[in-house]
UniProtKB/TrEMBL annotation:
Keywords: Histidine metabolism, Lyase. PROSITE patterns: PAL_HISTIDASE. The keyword Lyase applies. It is found in: Cytoplasm. InterPro entries: Aromatic_Lyase, Fumarase/histidase_N, HutH, L-Aspartase-like, Phe/His_NH3-lyase_AS. Pfam families: Lyase_aromatic. Its main location: cytoplasm. It is an enzyme of class 4 (lyase). This is Histidine ammonia-lyase. Belongs to the PAL/histidase family.
Length: 518
């Protein structure tokens, strides 16, 4: 079941939760800086202002950046230094990044600013909250981050908007000049002071935001994958005996046990299943792997998602900046901006998404082969030869799965040195996040085709009736999509099924019978 959207997200009272990030990124929940955050911000700013007058150079305060860190910057040029940093680093290219990703990125940068480890001024931190609450979303581009020294270009585009420069999209999606949009919303552009430009761009927020959103989606999709697997096992006259709890206790992977429990719940009280329980009437000893091993695959994916969630939780509790203001008032350079921990799990999730999609496609393919579908027409066609049924729907699945396998190649094993070899090893975590978003969309579509095909097969098993839970999912689909019949324009029906999966409606339909699935 979906969690209620918070009325307000307080930033600075502790690590943000997944629910906080989703609420702000997807549902426009308002944000505010807590009193604790404001106190911490003021304390760390005082440290930076003391250093600003120090004749000894301090990185990010009175020096250049990256390979230019050895150059001392005089006092009268330091405001220009910060502006120049943001302008030069706002160098993204390619298509615009999705609104929810940019909002998550801005929220997570605000969360780090609120820790009091970055040395920004209160008004700078407040500007991020104001942009989020006004629904103003900076234009951020697909390319520009190497996932090290922070998501530099994406974060710089966000910082540029705080300065009143560049372009934003308003709440209605209209492209606006930033200065004009800020004025219309009574937001004052920020004139950056010492260290602030660096503090606004030196974080893993872009890749982390996408990780949190992907985990949120995958948790729902893996429950849905259990539902579509149950529909396929049922429709292909498979057995649920292999999902018995004691069989999974002897291989104690937690995700596997949860998946098997879901399958048992969803298939409970199926007349179709009961029709072939007699071993004398059904001579098949074992089902194919794509049916029998569903809990092992989906369960392994679950455990991987939860490992990724642990990494994301640690990163949500982190303060990523360089240099960083410590609790005892030191300003220290560090390497915490390196995206490796996040990049690794982003890549790992693309692998498991591809494999769950792959086993789903194999189940769909069995429905379409008269030699393996146990009495159904070839391709589930109404009049095979005249009709093609779901033949090409499986082609669509296969094309998506093939792309997902390519997307499963890890980005984090690559590194291109930058900044005159000062930044000589990078994580490519942003690239890992971008391809994972495509993988999550692909898995959604593959599961939708399985659901559409399995629903057709269950209808064709009449007068035998499916399990109440799978029947509820079929009924939800039938609100927008007709049942078996002669060939129709199939793309809209696939899209109806995609929406059923993507919105969580398929999961909700099953849970009206089973209660919450795990």
């Amino acid at each position: 079941m979906t969690s209620p959207v918070p009325a307000e997200v307080a930033v600075g009272t502790g690590p943000l939760s997944f629910e906080d990030v989703v609420a702000v990124a997807r549902h426009d929940a308002p944000v505010r800086l807590s009193d604790e955050a404001l106190t911490a911000v003021r304390r760390s700013r005082a440290v930076i202002e003391d250093l600003a007058s120090d004749p000894i150079p301090h990185y990010g305060v009175s020096t250049g950046f990256g390979a230019l860190a050895t150059k001392h910057i005089p006092l009268e040029l330091r405001a220009q230094l910060q502006r120049s940093l943001v302008r030069s680093h706002a160098a993204g290219s390619g298509p615009e990044v999705e609104r929810e990703v940019v909002r998550a990125t801005m929220l997570l940068r605000l969360s780090t600013l609120a820790t009091g480890h970055t040395g920004v001024r209160e008004e700078t931190a407040q500007a991020y909250a104001q942009l989020l609450n006004a629904g103003l979303t900076p234009v951020v581009h697909e390319y520009g981050s190497l996932g090290c020294s922070g998501d530099l270009a994406p974060l710089a585009h966000c910082a540029l908007a705080v300065m009143g420069e560049g372009q934003v999209r308003d709440r209605d999606g209209k492209l606006r000049d930033t200065a004009e949009a800020l004025q219309d919303n009574d937001i004052q552009p920020v004139q950056l002071a010492e260290k602030e430009g660096l503090a606004l761009i030196n974080g893993t927020d872009g890749m982390l935001g996408q990780l949190v959103l992907a985990i949120t989606d995958l948790r729902r999709l893996l429950k849905t994958a259990d539902i579509t697997a149950a529909m396929s096992v049922e429709g292909l006259l498979g057995t649920d005996d292999v999902f018995a709890a004691d069989l999974h206790e002897i291989r104690p992977h937690p995700g596997q046990a949860l998946s098997a429990a879901n399958l048992r719940k969803v298939m409970a009280d199926s007349q179709i299943r009961e029709s072939h329980r007699d071993p004398e009437a059904c001579t098949r000893v074992q089902d194919a792997y794509s049916l029998r091993c569903s809990p092992q695959v989906a369960g392994g994916a679950r455990d991987t998602v939860e490992h990724a969630a642990q990494v994301a939780g640690r990163e949500l509790a982190a303060a990523i900046d360089n240099p960083v203001v410590t609790r005892d008032g030191r300003v220290e350079s560090n390497g915490n901006f390196h995206g490796a921990p996040v990049a690794y799990v982003l890549d790992f999730l693309a692998i498991v998404a591809a494999d769950v999609a792959s086993i789903s496609e194999r189940r769909t393919d069995r429905f379409l082969d008269a030699a393996r579908n146990h009495g159904l027409h070839p391709f589930l066609a109404d009049d095979p030869g005249v009709d093609s049924g779901h033949m090409i729907a499986q082609y669509t699945q296969a094309a998506i799965v093939s792309e997902m396998k390519r997307l499963a190649a890890p980005a984090s094993v690559d590194s291109i040195p930058s900044s005159a070899m000062q930044e000589d090893h990078v994580s490519m975590g942003w690239s890992a996040a971008r391809k994972l978003r495509r993988s999550v969309d692909g898995l959604t579509r593959v599961l939708a085709v399985e659901l559409l095909t399995a629903a057709r097969a269950l209808d064709l098993r009449a007068p035998l009736t499916p399990a109440p839970a799978t029947a509820a999912v079929v009924a939800a689909l039938r609100e927008t999509t007709e049942g078996p019949g002669t060939d129709r324009f199939l793309a809209p029906e696939i899209e109806n099924a995609v929406q059923l999966v993507a919105t969580g409606a398929a999961l909700a339909a099953a849970e009206t019978v089973t209660g919450p699935l795990q």
